[in-house]
Amino acid sequence: MERGALLAVTGGTGFVGRHVVRCARELGYRVRFLLRDPSAVERADGERVAFDLDDEGALDPDVLRGCDALLHLAAHIPRDHLDPCEAGRCWRRNALGTLRLMNAARPAGVRSVFQLASANAYAPHVERPDERAPMFPAGRVFYLTSKIAQETYAEFVCRRDGVALTTLRLGSVFGPGQSLGAVATLARRLQRNETVVLTHGGSFGADLVSVGDVCDALFLLLRVEASGVYNVGSGVRTTIANLAARLCRLTETDPAQVSGEAAVGEGDPGFPALDIRKIGRLGYRPGDLDEGLRSLLDWLGCEERPAAPSSRRTGLTR
Questions:
Q1: Mapping DSSP to helix (H, G, I), strand (E, B) and coil, where does residue 8 land?
Q2: What is the pLDDT of residues 288-315, one digit of tens each?
Q3: In terms of pTM, does the model score above 0.90?
Q4: CATH architecture of 6-170
C-alpha cells in the first residue's frame, strides 16, 4: 500500500495503538482515529470519528468511507480473567463489535482489513503452533474465546464481501508505554530493587514479542498487501525465571533479590514458542529480546529505586 494512504485505526490510543499510529505517520500514512471519545486525541493528530465497540445496531459506513485500509487494533482485555462477568463484555466488544465493523467495510469502499488476534488462543500442548494449528484455549477463556470469535466473524464477512483480510496472531506483547502486564511489572520491581518471589519457580512461559516487532510485522504486511493469518512473535519461549535473570543483568540487580516459590500442585505452563516461518518468508525478523527489554527499562527509568527492598510475587499473565 502506497504512502499517503488513509488508514482507519481502532484502538489508536491504546498501548499497541499508540506505537502503530506513530509508525504510520513516520512511514507517510494518514490516520483516521475511530474512538469512543474523539476528543481523546488532538485534531492535528489526524481525522477523528466516534466509534464504540459497545454500540448495537449497524455501523454507518461513512465512519470508514474514504479509507484505503482498516487497522482493527482495539480489544477489551479483562483485568481479572477469572471474573465470569467479563464473558459478556469480551463477547460484546471483541466479537460483536468486530462484526459490526466488518459489515461496514465493503459498503464504505475499504479494500483491506488488518486485525490483531491472540496466538495464546492455540490449543494447549501444541508444540510450536503454526497458523494451521487448532485453536481452543485452556485458560483466560472469556477473553481468548472472544478473540477466536472475532477472527471467525471477520473472516466470514470479508470473504463474503470480497475484502482482503490479514490477521496477526500475536504472542505476549511488551514494550515502552506498557503500564500493566507481567513483563512491565517485573521490570519495574527489579528496577526499584524490590525482592521478587516467582510463583511456581517462574516456570510459566510465553513467546514474548516487542511492540516494535509488532509494528514492523504490521507494516510489512500492509506494504506487500499480504492477506491471510500470520503468527507474530519471537519464535522463542521465555520463562519468567529466564526473564527475571535477564532483567537482573540489565538492571544490575543482585540475582539474590529473586527467589522461586515452591510449586504446589500442577502449575500453569503458559504458552509455547510460535512458528513464525510464514511471516519470516516475507522478511520479518524479530529483534533481540534484551534490546526490547532495554527499551522498556528506559521508559520506566524515571522511577527511582526505594532505599529498602520489599517483597513481591509475580507470574506471567496476559
A1: strand
A2: 999 999 999 999 985 443 333 333 334 4
A3: yes
A4: 3-Layer(aba) Sandwich (3.40)
